[in-house]
Amino acid sequence: MGLSDALAWYQNVLRIRFIFRDVERIYFPLLAAVSVPLNVITIVILSRGKCGLSRCVTGYLLAMASADLLVVIFDVIWRHIPILFREDFLFLQDVEVCNIHAALLFASTDCSVWFTVAFTFDRTVAICNQKLKVKYCSEKTAATVVGTVTVLSCFKNIIWCFMYNRTYRFVNDPMFCGIEFSDPKLQLWASLELAHYAVTPCAPFALILLLNIFTVRHILVSSRARSRLRAHSKGESPRDPEMESRRRSIILLFAVSGNFIVLWAVFTVTAILQRISHLDTIFTVPDYVPELGFMLQLLSCSTNTGIYAVTQSKFRGQFKNVVTYPICLLTKLTKQCVDGGRLLNSSP
């Protein structure tokens, strides 16, 4: 590549980067404005337990919605928006808590990701192993798993309080906090970050893929076996109640896990390549590719509500009730005020 070609390539990268920056200035505030109320409404609906889901499934979905809400707060609102609108958030330079912020951000992200893995494993057991389902797929097990994941995620991410200093840098390269280590220890820092991203999201990404492959294989095998069995049965209804009872679980499982795989794919690949590049290898990643990864990854924090609404009819009904309740209440109060005013005007 000649000098002119290299210059043209660099100019194209800068042009794309500036375009991404303009898109992000609209995208992240809009994402925050939508994600916070959606996750709050989801938490309220699931807490009421009227969606027709088992308590076990409800526990996992409630934990996922709560973790997603924290990710939106710590990552979208408190990280990306200040970076994009730096001139309006310079006061954060005097609030020296960036290392604590980083630990909370990574802990909530780990919880969100591993809750998805736990939910996927639970539904895989429920679909593929009826004997283990009785023992494992229970509210008590779900509470234990959620609690364990939360504690381990918090413990794992305490290290960021010591790796990063308290000053905000207002950039994402490599992190929005300053690095506590001196230059000779940068390779140690990069190695630890590489290990962090291997645990989250690379390991969950691989686990969810494998669990879904195993589930699909089991469904295909069991469907063929049941079809052959029913073909030899006489006078039996063509409907299969057992397979129909699994249908909702299967749709919810594939929707949630598929959503995670699609939206985390870019972030997962670029996170590993970026951390490898800090170890002085040949890998280089243009700045706009990780930004695209952030955009897609954080979008997953608001899409689960849509997934529940599409796949669960009772959730749709509850969502409609929660959204329309303030409007109905306001209409009722307005009507009462108007009626009260009429009575006062008509009184002698």
Strand order of the biggest β-sheet: 1-2
Number of E strands: 2
Query: How many helix segments?
Result: 10
- Tell me the major beta sheet: 2 strands, antiparallel
| Helix percentage | over 70%
Instruction: Report how far apart the termini are.
Output: 94 Å
Q: Give the class from helix and strand content and strand pairing.
A: mainly alpha
Shape assignment: globular
Radius of gyration: 25 Å
Q: For the residues shown, what is the average pLDDT?
A: 82
Give the strand content.
Answer: under 5%
SSE string:
HHHHHHEEHHHH
Unreliable stretches covering 5 or more consecutive residues: none
Oligomer: single chain
Detailed description of the structure:
The protein is mainly alpha-helical and 348 residues long. 80% of the residues lie in helices and 2% in strands. Helix 1 (3-48) packs across helix 10 (313-346), helix 3 packs across helix 4 and helix 3 (98-128) packs antiparallel against helix 5.
